[in-house]
Write a structure and sequence with these properties.
Structural class: alpha+beta
Number of helices: 25
Strand content: 5-15%
Number of strands: 19
DNA sequence: AAATAGCCGTA
DNA sequence: GTACGGCTATTTT
């Protein structure tokens, strides 16, 4: 049976300031304030154009009020309401509860208040308990309070109908808002209880000391934003646009392309005639109704005229006209390269893969790998130009134009970091994604637009070989541990090991730093192979793919892997142990207590089971490495707040700018650099995991390096001897 | 207007 | 091999 809340005494719209004051009283009595804003979803809390339409507040299960803030049906003055709400938010004896509290917190800050005291985010509690999406409130209500599944259906329709929350009539909006606050309170308390079960003692610290603290660091970071050199951005955008246009002209002039376009037109005309003939047939046989005989004749006549126009090649309407060849269209590229009789007629290299099953489809692929293969058979130079076009248009649309569209009047970008964004514990980034900004030489110009604010430099702290260090710690492999203890570069050491020259590590290192040495190129290659090998093994990559990446035969790849395992025997042992654990428990766990549940280990489908085994190895390594970065951001934030680390005098720029999985970016004024950097690297290398997560690294230490830059595109290794103030002149 | 497919950027 | 987000083209509603 589907229940529905009614507007009885439990839920109400507050219409007077007296009513708001009563809510304050209730929250103080129960010690809980669960709240949820409905807002105009546009610029977010950073922009001063958008406002909260309404807030729902619950203080005990089943009891909630809504207060209209900026709603046309309300006569309440928000200027009077906010100071009252502020008293609640800043009252340390009241537990603040929200679903995705980072979002609510940003709005609270926007109105000039802070949230003090204990803070409970049901969504993050749920995420720690179960990392698989969905994580949204509606889905959780459907799962745990199924009698109220779909409670938002009605208001959803109204939002669509009235085009925005702010236009939905107050009564249904208020009811919905109360339900949101109420369900948030109930589920949050429920999930927190589950986190506190003594049988999983690591959950609550992970929730409190990691997830909830990340909520703060990311909220501050998102509000602060990153600075953009808009002049520079506009310049490279224009440049790139020009290059794309020029390339496009050249591409379109290629003979085969002209021929293919002719074919497209004739083929299109053929199809138009076919379908018009089909229409005529439908009219004649009565499948398409006509009012009377006269109109029937007229309809047929019209279509026959159309056909003669088509035959003459006269295409006029938007549907009829054939656009120029579009090199961004995978469909057209398939025709051009493989299927069209007037195209290149290349042999199909491979097929695209189905997302669900990962099996090849019947559609030929035109991805980069395919193009590189075709390039050797192409004499027109088209393939190279297409590759160039792909690269440029990707850079242009994703990393230039979309940034231009998002940049604020004060030249900032406000991305969003999702704590619950991945199943492994890594945060994800969106709107825009600051974690996939191009870094290669061809596109390094992109990072040049990410500059520190005036008077500041960019400090990036990077964890080095985080995943392999974690793997060494988890597996306790003595050989891998030795590499890190000696401070070796793990990929070079691996290269030395698989060549059975480990004792000559220092010598090899010397060769690598001497470009004139006769063996320099050899060891460069070996180092690259070592790196490929390290990752391929950690993630159980197929032999074929490893061979491909290493540039060796499959047989050789298998031998390399064999040798690798001989060199690091305990890693293999750990991997089998992970497999055993996931079979036994259905989940695996990393050092911070973060779990990855892998029920697919019990699937009937072998592919699913194998995936679960790979995940059981990858997830703790990936998640745990990221946990170190995240933990560091939290500790550093604490130091900044206490004043034990100082990066800047600016209040505006005092938060972290970004994190990208194993690196963290800060803005810093030169006079603080030499005091702050050693402190930060010390904290990151030896984080106090004992205190907050009840474990200690037994065998390897984490390692961080620091880089400084006048932009994200020009980072240099930090040096204690450098006078960075000179960089600002 | 919303969903899917293909491709491609990052760690 | 693992983990993501986002753009463009294209189909579906």
């Amino acid at each position: 049976m589907k229940l529905k809340y009614t507007m009885d005494s439990n839920f109400a719209i507050v219409k007077t300031i007296k009513g708001v004051e009563r809510i304050l009283e209730y929250c103080r009595k129960t010690g809980y304030m669960s709240f949820d804003f409905e807002t105009k979803a546009k610029g977010g809390p950073q922009s001063d154009q958008d406002d909260c339409t309404i807030i729902g507040i619950a203080f005990q299960p089943g009891f909630a009020y809504s207060i209209p803030l900026y709603h046309k049906e309300s006569n309440l003055d928000p200027e009077e309401i906010f100071p009252l709400l502020g008293k609640l938010w800043e009252d340390t004896s009241i537990v603040k509860v929200a679903w995705n509290a980072k979002h609510e917190y940003k709005w609270v800050r926007r109105y000039g208040y802070d949230i003090r005291g204990v803070y409970l985010d049901g969504m993050l509690a749920k995420y720690v308990l179960d990392e698989e999406p969905p994580n949204d409130l509606k889905s959780m209500v459907a799962r745990f309070i199924p009698e109220f599944a779909g409670y938002d259906d009605e208001v959803d329709k109204l939002v669509k109908k009235h085009k925005g929350w702010e236009h939905v009539p107050l009564t249904p909006l208020s009811e919905y808002c109360c339900m949101d606050a109420d369900f948030t309170l109930r589920l949050s308390i429920f999930f927190e209880k589950l986190l506190l079960r003594p049988k999983n003692p690591k959950f609550y610290p992970l929730f409190r000391n990691m997830a909830m603290m990340q909520s703060r660091t990311f909220a501050e970071s998102e509000l602060m934003g990153v600075k953009i050199d808009v002049k520079y951005l506009n310049r490279i955008e224009q440049q790139t646009r020009g290059r794309i246009e020029k390339n496009l002209k050249k591409l379109l002039a290629i003979k085969v392309i002209r021929r293919y376009q002719e074919w497209r037109i004739t083929d299109h005309i053929r199809k138009l005639i076919e379908s018009t003939n089909a229409e005529i047939y439908a009219i004649k046989t009565g499948k398409k109704e006509a009012k009377n005989e006269a109109s029937k004749a007229r309809m047929i006549n019209q279509r026959e005229e159309k056909i003669s126009r088509y035959i003459a090649g006269e295409l006029v309407t938007k549907k009829e006209v054939v656009d120029e060849v579009n090199f961004n269209s995978p469909d057209q590229m398939v025709q051009l390269l493989f299927t069209s009789p007037k195209g290149f007629r290349f042999k199909i290299v491979k097929y695209t893969k189905d997302k669900e099953t990962k099996r090849p489809t019947t559609k030929p692929s035109t991805d980069e790998e395919v193009l590189l293969e075709l390039k050797t058979k192409d004499k027109t130079g088209f393939i190279q130009k297409l590759l160039d076009h792909r690269e440029l248009s990707k850079l242009h649309s994703t990393y230039m134009v979309s940034i231009q569209e998002r940049v604020t009047p004060d030249h900032k970008i406000h991305g969003e970091f999702k704590i619950h964004g991945t199943v492994t514990g890594r945060p994800s980034s969106a709107n825009p994604n600051l974690q996939n900004i191009p870094r290669t030489t061809t596109s390094s110009l992109i990072k040049g637009m990410y500059i520190p604010p005036p008077g500041h430099l960019l400090l990036e702290v990077d964890y080095g070989q985080a995943e392999l260090r974690v793997a060494a710690e988890l597996s306790k492999d003595p050989d891998m541990i030795e590499i890190f203890k000696k401070g070796y570069n793990v990929h070079v050491a691996t290269a030395a090991k698989i060549n059975r020259k480990f004792e000559k590590y220092e010598e090899i290192k010397g060769i690598l730093s001497d470009p004139k040495h006769p063996d320099h190129l050899f060891w460069e290659k070996q180092k690259k192979r070592g790196k490929v090998l390290n990752f391929s093994i950690l993630y159980l990559q197929s032999d074929e793919m490893t061979a491909d990446q290493m540039g060796v035969s499959v047989e050789e790849a298998i031998e390399f892997k064999q040798e690798w395992f001989n060199q690091f025997p305990l890693i293999k042992k750990w991997m089998s142990a992970q497999e055993r654990r996931v079979r036994k428990y259905g989940y695996v766990e990393g050092l911070f207590g973060r779990r990855r549940r892998l029920p697919d280990i019990y699937s009937d489908i072998k592919g699913f089971r194998n995936k679960a085994i790979r995940d059981s190895i990858n997830a703790p390594i990936q998640g745990c490495s990221s946990d170190f970065t995240q933990f560091s951001t939290v500790i550093i934030r604490d130091h900044i707040n206490r004043g034990t680390i100082k990066l800047t005098d600016s209040l505006q720029w005092r938060y972290q700018a970004y994190t990208v999985h194993d690196s963290i970016g800060y803005y810093v004024q030169p006079q603080f650099i030499h005091k702050a950097v050693p402190l930060i690297t010390e904290i990151c290398s030896n984080p106090d995991t004992q205190k907050y997560f009840n474990f200690e690294m037994q065998h390897v230490k984490m390692k961080v390096s620091a880089e400084m830059g006048k932009s994200w595109g020009s980072l240099e290794d930090y040096s204690y001897d450098k006078d960075y103030s000179l960089w600002l002149k």
